Structure formats: C-alpha cells, structure tokens
Amino acid sequence: MLASLYDVVFSVASLAALYAAWRVGSRVYSQRIIDVALANQKLHSPPSTIPLLGNTLDALFLQKTRFWDWIAEQSELSGGKPWVLRLVGRPTTLVCTSPEALEDIFKTHFDTFERGADLRDLLYDFFGDGIVGADGENWQKQRPLRDAMATVVKEKALHLRDALAKCAKEGRTVDMKSLLEKFSGDTFTKIAFGVDLNGMESDHPFNKAVDVMSETLDSRLLSPTWLWKMKRFLNVGDERKLKEACAIVHELTHQVMTESMQQQQKKKNKNKSDVLTLLLDSSGDLDVAVVRDAVMNFLLAGKDSTIFSLSWILVNLNRHPEVLRNEINEKLPGLVSGEMDAPTMDDLKDLTYVEAVVKESLRLHGIATTRVPKKSIILSDGTFAPAGCAVMMPAYASARLTSVWAMDRPRVKPVSPFKFGTFIAGPRQCVGMRFALLEMRLVTAVLFSRFDLKTVKDPFEISYEYAFTLPIKGPLLDVTVRAVSAA
C-alpha cells in the first residue's frame, strides 16, 4: 500500500518535472529563434554589450541611476531606428522610439501587437481582466468607462490648496510628494468608488495598501520573471506584502460594490456619479469580478500617474519659472487675487501656456510600454519583428530624439509641437487622457496662481527612480511655500 503511494507520488513528480522541462526548453528554443532573427539584421546594440550578460551590467550597475537617459542615448546612436537590448532573465527586446515605429505598433498593426502572456501574467494580480491588463474582446467591452469627474478634482484641488496655504502661513517646508499622494489617493478613490477617505487629514489603510501594490508592480517589471514568481510562490518579501495589500483593497472594493448594488436595486443611487455606479448601471452581462477589475484599473492606473506627472510639472516649473504666471495674471486675475476658487472648463481652454506646460512635462517624462507581435511582421522602416519578440517603446527616449524634436537639450518649451505618445495612440489610446489633462491643468492653475513653490534641492539635480513609471527619486520632494495671493 505504502509502495503504491510512493509510486503515485513519484509518477506525479516525474510528470511535473517533465512538463517544467518542456516549458523551459520550449521558451529557450523560441527565444533562440528570436535572437537569430534579430542578430541577422545587424541592428544596433549598445557598445557595452558583452557575451552572455548582454546589457545586464549597464541596467543593474553602470547605468542604473540614469537608465532611461542611457536608453535615450542608445536610441540616438541608432539614428532613431529599432535596436536590441539584452538583459539576463528577460527576453531579448527590440527598442522602438521613432514616431513611424510607434504608428506601426499602435495603429497600423494594432491587431498584431498585444501585451503578451508574460506581461498579462505579471499584471493579473493587480488589474485582473481590466483595461490595463486585457487584450482583445475583454478590453473592447470596457471602453465606455466614464472619466468626466471634474467636480471631484476641483474639490480635492481646493483641499490641496488649503493644505499649502496652512504651510505658507506657518512658514515651513512641505513634502510635495506626500501631499500629492494624498491628493491623488483621495481624488481617485472618490471618483472610482464614491468613497471619501479624507487622506489629507489622516492616513487610511486603503491608500497605504494601494501604494504597496504600486511599489510591487514596479518591482515585478524590473525583476526576472522567475524571481518574482518564486517569491510569490514562497509568499515572501514584497510579494507577501502584495498579498496582504490586495486583501485590504479587495475587502473595501467588495464592501462598496455590495452597498452600491443594494442601492441600485432600491433605486437610491440615481445621483451618484462614481465609476463603480456607472459601470453597474451599464454593465449588462458583466459580472462582479469584471466590474471590480475595471474600477481597480481606473484607480491604480490613474493614481500614480497623477502623482508622478504633477511632481514633474512642479520640478519643470522650478527649472523654468518664467513660463506660466504671467498668463494666469493676465487672463484670470480673479484666480490670483482669491476672488475665484478654481477656473471653469471655459477658463482652462484659454490658458494656452498652462496646457503647454502640462503636455510638455508629460512628453518629457513619459513611461515605457511593451508589446509582443502575435505573428512575425515587418515594420515600415524594414525592421523584421519576429513573432513573440518583446518590443519596448520608452517614451522618455522618444521625447529626446533630436531627429524629431531638434532640441539642443531637454527643456520645457511651451511653444513646441505636441507630438507625443504619453497616452499611446491609435485604437488603444488611454481612455483617461482627457480626464488626466483636465485634472493636471486645473491643479496646476490653482496651485501656481496662489503659491510660489520652490524646491529645496536644485531642480536640475532632481532625477528619477529606477522604474518604468519614472517617479521622482528619493522619499521626499521638499518645497518652500510662499503665498502670492489672497489664498
């Protein structure tokens, strides 16, 4: 009897080992085919590329503190044409930065390029089948996601203004990174769920849990696939913290969804305008899990991008303080004097320089995205992208191609053209683009009309973290606050 049990266990273990070996062998073989296809084209590779390790030393040590500038330099050396990046533990990657290549990927051959199995697996714990993690029909069903929530943005922007006014009155420095995290958390939680966490007044476990999820996502993106999967399997390190954070987030999400569905049945939520209510009202055949994933997509994708974007706007306006206040003084004197709290939508349309500052900052500090072609394809410049090849589009590097932008150095220049891929393009353009631009224009106008915000550190020495999302480097972004109006 015992011998039979051992035989069964041995057989199962043997089958599992054979399956694992087949999976590994299959991936190695597929990657070898991709490597040969890319090598035969003699595409640009960084001069520092070495056998076996490729560019791993650059990414982890030599260029880690300026990784995206190094990527931009290699893109310039390649003449803006696709080039090859090789990192141990990651698939060989084709790096594309030219507008023509981006149009190929996001528009012309949109149906050919998808996120791929590895990235879908990486994102699933965070986004489920929501907009950020989905491909194909699942994603197409969610495009009607509503994003016109200007009232909430205005309300939370005024809370942020009041917090800064208090700091100015007390004459103390303030960590803008922390304030913007609270502002963004409050804004997107209320827009997503209709729940007011009042993060400006006190820390809430939900906001902390969402922050842990964001940090772990960046960690996964920069780690070999086998490493984060092993940590998840063993339930250790940041993967353990992620599991605990997901439990907190899903508990609140489930609670709010249950209450909203009960109110919906009783017809008591007619005046609610949060994303959750809108999706439940129009969901039709969407189940609860899909609605939850869609709402979490809105929250997670919007919260951090808002923090990072507003932080870079602050830094860029410290580098070039002359570009904004004159326009606000001229066109909206009531905003500067304190006679009006916030600009209207019509007011924002007239603030050309505010829009230019926001868009230029977004262009200069865009994130990297990746895609995988389902089938082999030839890009418009003649580059062959084999099926299954990882393709990366680093917006930071695209924004610095001199052949496209003709800049002698990266700088804020409000009159420059607005050809940028910050929100991607084509059929899969970011559904929150208009909302994001509205939010950042409104917050920028409200804050910089009332306060002189000076970074304690030289703004030209402020850099980014080693991450796909380009957050400001370091735990703090200290600024001095001086009121310049009746705020």
Furnish the topology, listing elements before pairings.
Blueprint: H1 2-39, H2 56-62, H3 67-77, E1 83-85, E2 93-95, H4 99-108, E3 113-114, H5 117-127, H6 136-140, H7 150-170, E4 174-175, H8 176-193, H9 205-221, H10 225-234, H11 237-265, H12 275-282, H13 288-319, H14 325-331, H15 333-337, H16 345-350, H17 352-364, E5 368-373, E6 377-378, E7 384-385, E8 390-394, H18 395-398, H19 402-405, H20 433-450, E9 451-455, E10 478-483
Parallel strand pairs: 2-8
Antiparallel strand pairs: 1-2, 3-5, 4-10, 5-8, 6-7, 9-10
Summarize the structure in short.
This protein has 487 residues and is α+β, with helices and mostly antiparallel strands.
List the helices and strands in order: HHHEEHEHHHEHHHHHHHHHHEEEEHHHEE
User: Could you name the CATH class of the domain at 41-106 and 142-199 and 294-483?
Assistant: Mainly Alpha
Give the averaged pLDDT, no decimals. 83
Largest sheet: 5 strands, mixed
Q: How far is the N terminus from the C terminus?
A: 82 Å
Q: Helix- and strand-based class?
A: alpha+beta
Helix content: 55-70%
Q: What's the total count of β strands?
A: 10
SS summary, helix count: 20
Tell me what portion of residues adopts beta-strand conformation: 5-15%
- The radius of gyration over CA amounts to 24 Å
Poorly predicted ranges: 136-148, 414-418
- What CATH calls the topology of the domain at 41-106 and 142-199 and 294-483 is Cytochrome p450
Q: Per the principal axes of the C-alpha atoms, what is the gross shape? A: globular
Q: What is the CATH architecture term of the domain at 41-106 and 142-199 and 294-483? A: Orthogonal Bundle
The CATH H-level superfamily of the domain at 41-106 and 142-199 and 294-483 is: Cytochrome P450
Within the largest sheet, what's the order of strands?
1-2-8-5-3
